[in-house]
Design a protein that fits this description.
Helix content is 84%, strand content 0%. It is mainly α and 171 residues long. Helix 1 runs antiparallel to helix 2, helix 3 packs antiparallel against helix 4 and helix 3 runs parallel beside helix 6. The chain is elongated. The relative contact order is 0.10.
Length: 171
Amino acid sequence: MDIIHDMVIPCLCSFIACAALGVQFNIRFRHLIAASVGSLVSQFIFILLEQNGFRDVACCFVSAAAVALFSEIMAKVNKAPVNMYLIIGIIPLVPGGLAYYSMLALVMGDKDTFLDRAVDAFAEAGAIAMGIFAVSSAVKIYKDIKRHYRKSLNKAYKHLSAGDGKSVKKF
């Protein structure tokens, strides 16, 4: 296994290509670098899992989940929309080649190859969507629980400070 040829070059190419796409989307430089790092992360995780014998669908799911988590964190840190980081980050995972070759097989009249490649393309696209959905749902649930917990603490604080007339310090 040649680590430079198998891991470094694809990750570097992914970073450069997604940065160029971010420039086309008119993303600011500091957000552009972070979004491109997200694409590097997704490509690295995909290659790492693929070399360890995982199927492409599982690789896409885990990579998309990792990019979604990275995007949520970067959006919180930089106070920017999650989609800006997420769209650039999942570009390396999109099964464009499979979709192209499945359509080519359909045009050429090879129905068996078309069905095989189309099913693989839809499975990978579905895995990407499910990875993003799982992380986004988990983050939303976490935020709701955190908000509910803060709300109940504020109620308890108001109840304590109003009851005996003494000032009660917040935790």
